[in-house]
Amino acid sequence: QVQLVESGGGLVQAEGSLRLSCAASGNIFSINAMGWYRQAAGKQRELVATFTSGGRTNYADSVKGRFTISRDNAKNTVYLQMNSLKPEDTAVYYCKASITTTGRLYAVDYWGKGTLVTVSS
Prior knowledge:
The protein is mainly beta and 121 residues long.
C-alpha cells in the first residue's frame, strides 16, 4: 500500500554537499514520523535525522551542524540536506516513515530501498 523512494545519492568530494529526497506514496492517511537512517559497510544501521511523531527533529551527534532535515507535507516528502560531507558519511541512506493507511487505526513502519552516498577524500 505504501512505497518510499529515495533519490539524490551519489559521489561527492569531502566538504561537498548533497540533498536527499524521500517521497512516500500510496494509500496514506497520515504520516506520524519520517526520517533518515544510514548503514555503512560492516556497521549497523543508525539513525541520522528524523521528525518525531511530536513534530520535533532528532539528529545523530555525528551530523549535528552539518545535516538538516526538512519536509514538504503536501508532497509527503522528506529531505536531508547534507553539508560539509566527510568520508565517514559514506553509507547507504534509508528513508523510514511511520504511516497510517486508510482503513487502519495504527501506524506501520515502512522503509525505502536506500540510496548510496559516497564521499571521497
